Amino acid sequence: MRIVVTDRNNKDFTYLSGLVDDEYFQMFGEVVLEYSKHNKLESLDDVVLIYSEGKPVACGAFRKFENNAVEIKRVFVCKSFRRQGLARKVMRKLEEIARQKGYARAVLQTGSMMGPAIALYEAIGYKAMENYKEFAGDENCACFQKKL
Question: What is the pTM of this model?
Fold first, then answer.
């Protein structure tokens, strides 16, 4: 496995982001289209990719959220590579980059029905928080934060 730090223009990141969208649409149907405006790749600053035998199999990214915080976005692992700790590796690398850039906190939003994702975030130290900004009051969403 090889970890690569890149940017939002990386074709492999674009490819994996498409898989994220496809999977969410299969899981939840058309309701996910309401959230697509919150997942524009143009807003992302830093991207982490994991490759296996030259193929992209996992990704994650972040963007500036507030002066001292980033928002984690687009964390994804291809189905055949799940349960191997790759999402943890992506998260650790994103947090490391954010710390190096001077950020003190990370926030993220996931679906309230995304049990495995929520379990991962809690296992690596993220704490539930009130839904922020555009997700405030949205019961389909769950927001988390962590001090870096």
Answer: 0.89
